[in-house]
Amino acid sequence: MSTLAPRPLRPARPGRPGQPVRSTRRPVASQRREGAWDWWLIGAVLALATVGCLLVWSATSARAELLGGDPDAFLRRQLLNLGLGLGMLVAVARCDHRWVRLATPLLYLAALAGLVLVLLAGTVVNGSRSWLMAGPLSVQPSELAKLAVVVGMALVAAERTEGRWGRGIGHVDVVLMLLVAAVPAVLILAQPDLGTTLVLTATVLGVLGASGAPRRWLVGLGVLGAATATAALAVGVLQDYQLDRFLAFLDPARDPRGAGSNVEQARIAVGNGGLFGQGLFHGSQTRAGFVPEQHTDFVFTVAGEELGLLGAGVLIALLGVVLWRALVIAVRARDLYGRVAAAGIACWFGFQSFQNIGMCLGIMPVTGVPLPFVSYGGSSMFAGMIAVGLLLSIARRDQRRR
Amino acid sequence: MNQHTRLRLVVIQALVFSLFATLFVRLYYLQVVTGEDYRGRAAAQSVREVVVQPSRGLIVDAQGRPLAANRLIWVVSLDRTLLDRLSDTQRERLLARVGRAVELRPRRIEQRLLTCGDEGAMPGVCWNGSPYQPVPIAEDVPEQAALRILEQPEDYPGVVVDQQSVRAYPSPFGINAAHVLGYLSPITSEELSAAESAGDLSVNGASVVGRAGIEQEYDRWLRGIPGYREVKVDSRGRVLGDDGEVQAQPGDTLVTSLDARVQSVVERQLAATIRTARATVDPVTDRPYVADSGAVVVLEADTGRVVAMASQPTYDPGLWVGGITKRQLARLYSEKAGTPLLGRATQGQFAPGSTWKPFMTAAALTHGYSPDTRLDCSSSFRVGNRDFKNYESGAYGMITFARALEVSCNTFFYRVGYDYWRRYGSDESDVDAKDPLVAEAEAFGFGSETGVDLPGEASGRIADRRWKRAYYRSMKGYYCGIARKPQDARTSDFVYRFATEFCIDGYAYRAGDAANFAIGQGDTIVTPLQLARGYAAIANGGTLYAPRVARAIVAADGTVVRRFAPKVVGRVDLPASVQRYVDTALEGVTRVGTMAWRMGGFPLDEVDIRSKTGSAEVYGKQSTSWVASYSDDYVVVMMVSQGGTGSGTSGPAVRRIWEALYGITGEQVRPADAAIPGVVPPEQLPQFRADGSVLPPAPDPRRRR
Questions:
Q1: What's the domain range around A120?
Q2: What is the percent of chain B where pLDDT is above 70?
Q3: What is the pLDDT of residue A66?
Q4: How many domains, chain A?
Q5: Contact (CB<8Å) A257/B1
Q6: Among A375, A319, A328, which Cα is nearest to A348's?
Q7: What is the 3-state secondary structure (H, E, C) of A277-305?
Q8: Could you tell me the pTM of the whole model?
Q9: Mean of the pLDDT values across residues B604-609?
Q10: Which of B8, B24, B31 is opposite residue A210, by nearest beta carbon?
């Protein structure tokens, strides 16, 4: 995989800060200006966000009951979200690396505070207490928590290992990192928000893997997760209706009026798109509002119906570009914090995208997770943009150092 | 970075990209491999096919007056595909809300929503149509209720409100004409599947079809072709826009030979006659006449066209509009209410009594008797061991056929019947024995359907030797069963004696049967329409028509699709001399005979009415009142069951009908006052204008009197 090997492997030289610039760098990297922006990443994110705005617009402009009379209300709000998000992206990207590391505990604590607050004073939407409502604004703290967990774990890993020479992550470090992840995970599970918990679990495993945690931890956690899930089913922690809802993607008849109908409608809309799609703003199922939550969690079905295999494929490819750049940044990162954070963000985006699109295509359970950069919503947009800003910041620092 | 960590990142990357590859494969599968299926389902749920029912063809009278028209009603339907997406509580709430709006119990709505053939589906209530079409649950909804639902689509997801054209009965001159017009009711599943397999596009699950009368007979013209409108709907079933429309084609107009003014007079006279009879005490039974039913038929003598036809008791054909209730339907079939559905003019069968005698006269005069023949009109005539008596035991001595008709002498015709029986048929068990009287009755069309263009016509019955043999075979078991046992308390003497005799030689066509046949008594029965057609044949010299109600089919654009010419179904061998003799004799009935006391002061010299009265006896019931009459143009036959004597009960009404037909006031004849302009029915069809209006036929100067 050439994308993963921008440089020859040099096992003798541990990647750590303060290493002198070497002359053996590959030409591409050497030609880059100091602190260059990763335009592949920026371009892909901007393209995703732009397409996202159009899809949200298409999904909402014909739905009078959502809008209160203004067909462009959702577009305008999403553009505002995008503008604010881009501002955050630029701010974080330009921020000095040290400030980013300093801000990490603050972000983490803010996310924890938000999660506690949402449990105390949150509003229940679709059965989960996930939303903080403040007048016209609504915030979903669990979106920020995913980012907080990633950078929090990265910080712990970095702080614990940077003082030591030549040593990887130890058992104590793993336990600490898991603790950092566990507190918000428990709070999110309490909402309950199964989808975010799943994404978080996958992200934590990715972070641990990227940080170099011992393999038996990864295997052990995997086995533990499977055992917990089995036990939960056996003991009956999940009510029947919850189980039906969860498994409706396999058999829509299990929850015909709830998730099953979502699954059916999503499949019909996507299938209706065919190879070339019905054309933007011309999807009969989209415009008629057959798919529930179509501008948020099921936004991919709009792409499926209106843009077809071609457009939706491009959307998947754009997400692939984002992940490719994130992983490249992780590989190139010179410090553990950067590498773990970038890999964690990649895992987060990757699994969340898979979870979301898989749900729209009927191969994953119906859980409320948004499609990064595309779904309507401020919290997920901001979290995503800050994460991209962080990626850019990591990338720029590495290049400056070289 | 160590190699170990780098490998980890490779694994992560491989995982992430394989996940994305999975997504793409799945996307390809959904959109390309199975895309066609999903596209079909997408279209099915986002496009609602709405049937546009055609407006049914008008039924107009000969002057172009609408007898059956259309009006728009509001229909509330439910979209089941959408209903199925609601949760149980949402559905319950919606049905309750809709139920309140249209005043129906939710249970009833549920029944309407069931597809016929499903478990618990009630025939007549369940839905016959396509599963993709909205199911009508309430017809003829008040406009206010319909508009309330239309204005609040949010509260009524999946509720479709639209207008539909249904039958309206303008009732010109207050006519009812229910038995001629017939009625409509929803198509049954069997009819629908039969139509579908025959490729008939004129019906759909929500169609109504003609069930009786000319609505049934000419249904395929009146129906029209339904249109279909495809509308885009959103997830709540609200209409987003039209996708396409196949226009409905309205049904053709049926022009009938009926005349609403004559029909109106006829109906009023029939109703008034029955009212009067019920207030009159029958001297035979000392009880008021029951007058349970009655009928009047007015035919054009030279064409067999039906000008008016009334039957009592009757019903309101509008009862079917928007669905008839079970109780209403039960009443229409109930004997207690007099089975109003039964059209007495074509379906009621009664002994003709003395109105039978002109046919017997014609038979006698063409089979050996001469106009000069005189027979004894004694007060009674003994056949075998039984005395056959005259009405009120009158006796007129030796009289001619003409006089026998005038005074309606029974013993005269007994002798004729007995004479033929002795001459040809004294072998009681010979079913092939010659019988001129029976042959003549058959020639005049009795005992078989007239072929009128109204469904469900009764054939009447000629109680000849064959019939008697067949009847004996079918009833032998029953009566012999009674006769073999000793008489018990429940069996009257009469029945016991009858059963005993029947069991022994009930198959035999005896002299008494022949005598009875000659005066229209016994087991011979006719419909009023048959009798009218028979008299028309006497009037026109022997041509037997299949009476016609329909005159023409006219397309919605005014072009004549089809004309119905008078249909000749037979010719009676009626020599002109015999026809003249009978005609003159019946004229005598009106002038000096049994009808004369009802025709005092009638300008018979200008409007020559020939008539014959009849009071047919029915075992266990009061007598049937008959008057059969004709002029040069028309035949008028009236019958009142259990109504008394012919002239006594029906005479005045028949006179009024003749007065209306010719514009007679007192002794004055004013053709201008006649019910039909120019007295005789117009040869021309009504004029159909491009704007949809119908004007009376253009006057034809040649035919004006």
A1: 38-400
A2: 98
A3: 65
A4: 1
A5: no
A6: A319
A7: CCCCCCCHHHHHCCCCCCCCCCHHHHHHH
A8: 0.71
A9: 92
A10: B8
